[in-house]
Amino acid sequence: LPLINVVSTPAHPFGFFTSIGNEQMFNTFSPTTALSVFKNPASYAKHYKYPKTVLRYLESLVPDNYMRNYLLKFLRRKLDKFEYSPTILYFLGKSGTGKDTFVNIIERIIGSHGMARPTTREFLEMYNGWMLDKYFAQLDEYGNQLTRFDEKESALGKIKAYTGKPEVQIRQMRSDGFNYQHSITFIMTANKNPLFLDHDDRRVALFNTPNRLIDEQWVMETGGVSRVIELIHDEIIDFCYYLATELDNLTLDEYMSPPE
């Protein structure tokens, strides 16, 4: 009988495939409907409706056209290839601008199993099994939650280590550590007291988020924030079709190094 390697990766369809090294593989990763549409948009073409609420929300979240375009193209390449990148997506601005909503959109696309939200305590401890089989990780208000200087320095050291290279050592309780190839994109969100890397660190893509959704005229006309969130959730699959058909991937250099 032939030897078949079993993997779980969103970079390939569910089922059998042949690797670059000509090995027989079986992928156990089961994609969400949204991710399936992104991978095969033709299957959804006749159902597609322009995701106007999602795109209008993104215009409010990141009003800078250049950085919003970078964000969308980054997301497209990530969902296309699920490659490692040192780039940190850092959303900084007022409370109520929809930063968590963006994270929730990603989670609905990749599935809850692919998103990590470690608490500051989990992040600082030596055990890091939370990284296994994750593709995004939200670090929310770490600068505000970490009050001691040594804790902030420790968190920054771990962020640099985890984003600095694709291979990390996983440590779990009552088991030996082992090396692991990760492709997690870290998303940092903050209203105030941001936890910043060095000023000359090139891995941060900084997105200024100055607009509170509740104050946006179009949100009021739509029926309020809750109604907008409902419509965003309804448009997730259409948004995936839009990403797949209306945008191009970033180049590898752009994906690995964000704008200054």
Can you give a write-up of this model?
- With 260 residues, the chain is α/β, with parallel strands linked by helices.
- Helices cover 40% and strands 17% of the residues.
- The strands form three sheets. The chain has a five-stranded parallel β-sheet with strand order 5-6-9-4-10. A three-stranded mixed β-sheet has the order 1-3-2, with no helix packed on it.
- 32% of the residues are buried.
List the helices and strands and how they pair.
Blueprint: E1 5-7, E2 15-18, E3 24-27, H1 33-39, H2 52-61, H3 65-81, E4 88-93, H4 99-110, E5 115-116, H5 120-124, E6 136-140, H6 142-145, H7 149-164, E7 167-170, E8 178-181, E9 185-190, E10 204-209, H8 217-222, H9 225-234, H10 236-246, H11 252-256
Parallel strand pairs: 1-3, 4-9, 4-10, 5-6, 6-9
Antiparallel strand pairs: 2-3, 7-8
Helix pairs in contact: 1-10
What structural keywords apply?
about 260 residues; alpha/beta; five-stranded parallel β-sheet; 11 helices; about 40% helix
Q: What value does the Rg take, in angstroms? A: 19 Å
Give the distance, in angstroms, between the N- and C-terminal Cα atoms. Answer: 53 Å
Structural class: alpha/beta
Q: In which range does the helix fraction lie? A: 25-40%
Side-by-side strand order of the widest sheet: 5-6-9-4-10
Strand content: 15-25%
**pLDDT average, as an integer?**
93
Order of helices and strands: EEEHHHEHEHEHHEEEEHHHH
Sheet having the most strands: 5 strands, parallel
Number of strands: 10
Low-confidence stretches: none
Query: Treating each run of at least 4 consecutive H or I residues as one helix, how many helices?
Result: 11
Bulk shape: globular
